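Can you give me the bound-state structure? Components:
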Amino acid sequence: MERLTLPCDEAAVRKLRVGDAVLLSGRMITGRDAAHHWLVHGFQKDVAEFMKGTIIYHCGPVIRKNPDGSYDVVAAGPTTSAREEPYQADVIGRYGLRGVIGKGGMFKKTQAGLQEHGAVYLHAVGGTAQVLARSVVRVDRVFMLEEFGVPEAMWVLEVKDFPTVVTMDSHGGSLHDVVQASSKAELDKLIGAGK
Amino acid sequence: MDQEQWTNLLVDVVARATSRLPDDVTQALKAGRTREKEGSLAAMALDSILKNSELACAETQPMCQDTGVPLFFIHHSRSISAGLLTRACDEAIKRATARNLLRENAVDTLTGKNTGNGFAPGIPSVHCEEWDQPGCEIKLLLKGGGSENVSAQYSLPDSRVGADRNLEGARKVILDAVHQAQGKGCGPGILGICLGGDRASGYLMAKQQLLRGLFDTNPEPALADLEARCLDEGNQLGIGPMGFGGKTTLLGVKIGTLGRVPASYFVSIAYLCWAARKAVVRVSEEGAVTWKD
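Here's the bound-state model for the whole set.
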């Protein structure tokens, strides 16, 4: 079991390899569809300092607003990462991210971005929103809540021992490519020469 | 029962569905866990899923943050108004969202703004049908967006996978859909499938198949055989929980049919994530409530 404290430097993520289980502690930020679109159109400098050296979490949480104005995370599992494929590599490069947490994996453009910039794709178990919410220590602040709404806003989270697995590393390795290829070979056997 | 009483009951239905995994799904997940190798990523994922289910149920919290599209399928007697039930469903979704049982999960497609209360045209999706029995039966399915995105509809013949217009062709496209989904639909998944129908009725029937018990047997032997074969072969693909690789790719396959016009042969495949959030309740004419899930 690896441990990674966020923010972190390039050397720390270059050590990680596909298949490593990693517990994350420190500061991360959520961002999904609306956020990625916004981040690549210009340089959003207010949020940039909360992104440098840390990890963006593809997550649209359920949030409770407390009477004192603070927020609690009620449920917070990963959303499908594939939708951010057009933007992810640019967002990593422009904002100095060291990685992404999501589910389902990403593709060639992101893979190249991870290699070029020294970043890693971490997979959380989809649907386990209660397990993962319990790793969130507190909500530090939120960006674009009014404009994007709760699920799409960028929530700055302090986490402790947040469980993930490396499925794409900074050396070109991807578990998703391996499973895609092996399952394709099985599929061809099962449906015959038609394909 | 007046609209307020129906609304309160429907909030309870939402709370049950969002927080409690049906027993048959839990059983299938545990059976999958015994087949995975100790220390594998597949085993780790299933352990996390089972732990998550316990936490969500114990504290009546949403097991997944994507609380999905709420689909209500209601049968009611002639004495109960479909209009009243539909209004109660709408109101129940708003109240459940305010109570954080559901995420603020409805977006105005034109403006891109989140409506903030879980309600928008088409959300929830409410289907009322009169039946000859007394009372009412309400089934709720909360279907997550990730699994909806990997659902697929094929028009046969399909030369890409060599699928003709028969059950063998259906088998090929069903396996192709499982392969296309990989881990993106939050597997291990459950497939609800309709053969025939049109593009709209096919998907609706496919989603209704997801309400069947995981271990029931299709009364039509040819479909029962196809279900069993697709479940077995889907698991042979080795995609595994979350696409991590492993033996547990599917938990169930449920297939129904509708008539079709001669020109069309659709296979509609509704993929449901492992977080198969369902609740079923019977309500008597007098308002007595019995849970049936």
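A couple of observations. Chain A touches chain B through 53 residues (CB under 8 Å). The domain at 2-194 of chain A is CATH 3.20.130.10 (fumarase).
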